[in-house]
Amino acid sequence: MAMIGPAMAVPVVGTIAAVAVAVVGTIAAVAVAVVAAIAAVAVPVVAAIAAVTMPVVAAAEVSLALATRARTFPGLVIVVMIMVITIVIVIMVITIVIVIMVITIVIVMVVITIVVMVMVITIVIVIMVITIVVVIMVITIVVMVMVMVITIVVMVMVITIVIMVMVITIVIMVGLALGQHVKVVARS
């Protein structure tokens, strides 16, 4: 029993360690892949927005300058300003969405990591409890064996003493009987 406990505990600990390392590695790989995918999507989106925005802003600046100098086309100026504001709002919304996605992914990764850590800690605690139980069982068995051995030794000692007393008693009785016989023979 003393050999079965550690022999079973070592492979279990090794398996748990291997699973924990694999889980952490998978989480890291997924996190890197997600961040890379977000970057791959965000960079073209930002580049496209910039490519669309720059000419519009430049045209808006030219139109606003011409309208300011000539004091004409107020409607065009208003339209251009609305377009610029709309583009800026769209850029802000897209940026906020990307930031929320990244924060959400980070929170999910943190939660998954915490869950994995709690699982590993729970498994370690379970292994510790099992080890303690096995140690208590082994100690109990050892104590029982020692008690049995001591009991057997005491019984052997008691039996030996009883036999010795019986032998001594028999010897004394035989001696007394022989003494009486010798006295009878001597008188006769």
Automatic annotation (TrEMBL):
Transmembrane intervals: 12-39, 45-67, 79-112, 118-145, 152-178
GO molecular function: transmembrane transporter activity
Family annotation (InterPro entries): Na/solute_symporter
One GO term describing the cellular component: membrane
Record keywords: Membrane, Transmembrane, Transmembrane helix
Keyword Transmembrane helix applies: yes
Protein name: Uncharacterized protein
Organism lineage string: Bacteria, Bacillati, Actinomycetota, Actinomycetes, Mycobacteriales
